[in-house]
């Protein structure tokens, strides 16, 4: 059973609740307010469905076919046909956490009372989440306008007892069988329900929220990696002083610089070259400007979080029900541009933070720039290659991240017989951002791995307590210190796991407290 149950309909879903449902398998229930709001909106839809005047999405076709009035006895078929035809995705399965995230966000919109679905339909969607039933959603199919139509249609199809799903154990089964096994009954969609279930930005928003959570962790971890690199390359911490940051008052820059000061406090390595004999005027940009780059990334993530917060507070559907006024109105709120733009912004962030991390790593390996360390940090240079090819791996990832930073949201392909003639491509932006975030974590992990080896090679000089804790965490995880060449890939993967899980950050914070 789930450790946590999230109540939907007491206000916008929070990012933490999204992560709990999507990643941790939390269950879901509807609040009393949501139940009441759904009921009020449904009354409006039922009234309009019985009226002689056509209402879009209730008694008409969809998109370019909206001019056709659908008779009452064909409206159930209208909803079934909509979902079946729109469940047209192709390609690999989308990750479970993404599908659960988009299902939760669609349920959150249903709970606002602006979509007009019946209570039993919303409750069945909550039931799928609580029982761990995950519809199979395919990679391709969303243009990010009229919402994430194909991905959401695959979820709606499961509510009808059709299509394929993964059960709580990850086994692929027919949706109808999974519902029966969970004690759930499929629904026969009524007027407006098919459209209400598929017309939202929920997929791209779910991926945005998870990317923000990952980047907030990775940017603090990047500060840890940068501190280790500055320290092991005999760089100065004076450039991170708060009075220097204050004269360029970007909040992210100040936070990153303050982290670096704390991480480097009481470093014997830094202290070893503070004296009057030190003839180095200033460090390379990749060391000296780390707070400026990491800070700009933080500020961009903060902007993306603000956009995500507004989208979480939205009811994205078309047409939308206005219960207090007893009417249904068409609108364009399903357009994914606000979310698509920040998804693309964050891909730029991931690429550039990875780029500066790779440059810091590369400096360790060049004997002309690493201030007395062996070439490539090798045990016996020439016989051993050290971390030479680890940097190649970084470089390959950084090159890929630069390609992924090309925005998806500037593209648009008209669809639906030119009715939908400008689309956001937000789903595509979100899909590539997930790859970007994974790549960034791998680049930072190689920097941590390399910097730890360099700090060991600076012995008997002692690193700071915070960076020493990170080195110990690596060593305790089976990554050995300097020595003859050995199979490097497993060590890189261990470092990646420690970065992605937050263990590297936790090691540093166990000594100096939480970083900004």
From TrEMBL:
Supply the PANTHER family for this chain.
HISTIDINE AMMONIA-LYASE
Q: Does the keyword Lyase apply?
A: yes
Q: What is this protein called?
A: Histidine ammonia-lyase
Primary location group: cytoplasm
Q: Recall the GO molecular function terms of this protein's record.
A: histidine ammonia-lyase activity
The reaction(s) catalysed by this protein are: L-histidine = trans-urocanate + NH4(+)
Concerning InterPro entries, the annotation shows: Aromatic_Lyase (IPR001106), Fumarase/histidase_N (IPR024083), HutH (IPR005921), L-Aspartase-like (IPR008948), Phe/His_NH3-lyase_AS (IPR022313)
Q: Which Pfam families match?
A: Lyase_aromatic
Q: Where in the cell is it found?
A: Cytoplasm
Q: Which UniProt keywords apply?
A: Histidine metabolism, Lyase
Family stated for the protein in its record: Belongs to the PAL/histidase family.
Q: What is its EC number?
A: 4.3.1.3
List the pathway annotation: Amino-acid degradation; L-histidine degradation into L-glutamate; N-formimidoyl-L-glutamate from L-histidine: step 1/3
Q: Gene symbol?
A: hutH
The family database entries (NCBIfam families) matched by this protein are listed as: hutH (TIGR01225), PRK09367.1 (NF006871)
């Amino acid at each position: 059973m789930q450790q946590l149950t999230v109540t939907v309909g007491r206000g916008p879903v929070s990012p933490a609740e999204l992560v709990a449902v999507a990643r941790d398998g939390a269950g879901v229930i509807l609040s009393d307010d949501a139940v009441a709001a759904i009921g009020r909106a449904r009354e409006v839809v039922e009234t309009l469905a019985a009226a002689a005047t056509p209402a879009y999405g209730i008694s008409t076709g969809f998109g370019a076919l909206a001019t056709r009035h659908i008779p009452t006895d064909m409206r159930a078929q209208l909803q079934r046909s909509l979902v079946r035809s729109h469940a047209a995705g192709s390609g690999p399965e989308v990750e479970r956490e993404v599908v659960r995230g988009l299902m939760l966000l669609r349920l959150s919109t249903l709970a606002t009372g602006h979509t007009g679905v019946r209570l039993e339909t919303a409750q069945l969607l909550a039931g799928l989440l609580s029982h761990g039933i995950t519809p199979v959603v395919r990679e391709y199919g969303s243009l990010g306008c009229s919402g994430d139509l194909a991905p959401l249609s695959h979820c709606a199809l499961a509510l009808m007892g059709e299509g394929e799903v993964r059960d709580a154990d990850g086994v692929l089964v027919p949706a109808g069988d999974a519902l029966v096994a969970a004690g759930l009954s499929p629904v026969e969609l009524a007027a407006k329900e098919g459209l209400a279930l598929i017309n939202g930005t929920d997929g791209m928003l779910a991926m945005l929220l998870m990317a923000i959570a990952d980047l907030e962790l990775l940017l603090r971890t990047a500060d840890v990696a940068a501190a280790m690199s500055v320290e092991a390359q005999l760089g100065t911490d004076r450039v991170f002083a708060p009075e220097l940051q204050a004269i360029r008052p970007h909040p992210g820059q100040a936070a990153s610089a303050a982290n670096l000061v704390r991480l480097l406090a009481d470093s014997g390595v830094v202290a070893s070259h503070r004296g009057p004999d030190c003839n180095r005027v200033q460090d390379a940009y990749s060391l000296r400007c780390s707070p400026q780059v990491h800070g700009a990334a933080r500020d961009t993530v903060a902007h993306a979080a603000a956009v995500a917060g507004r989208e979480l507070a939205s009811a994205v559907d078309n047409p939308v029900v206005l219960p207090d006024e007893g009417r249904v109105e068409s609108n364009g709120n399903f357009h994914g541009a606000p979310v698509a733009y920040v998804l693309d912004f964050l891909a730029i962030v991931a690429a550039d933070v990875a780029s500066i991390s790779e440059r810091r790593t590369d400096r360790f390996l060049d004997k002309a720039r690493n201030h007395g360390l062996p070439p490539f940090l090798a045990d016996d240079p020439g016989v051993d290659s050290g971390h030479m090819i680890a940097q190649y791996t970084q470089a390959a990832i950084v090159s890929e991240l630069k390609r992924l930073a090309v925005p998806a949201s500037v593209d648009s392909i008209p669809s639906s017989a030119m009715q939908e003639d400008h689309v956001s491509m937000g789903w595509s932006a979100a899909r590539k951002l997930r790859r970007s975030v994974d790549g960034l974590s791998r680049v930072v992990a190689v920097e941590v791995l390399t910097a730890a080896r360099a700090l060991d090679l600076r012995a008997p000089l002692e690193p700071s307590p915070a960076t020493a804790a990170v080195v110990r965490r690596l060593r305790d995880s089976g990554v050995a210190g300097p020595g003859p060449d050995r199979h490097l890939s497993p060590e890189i993967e261990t470092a990646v796991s420690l970065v992605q899980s937050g263990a590297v950050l936790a090691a540093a914070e166990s000594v100096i407290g939480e970083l900004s």
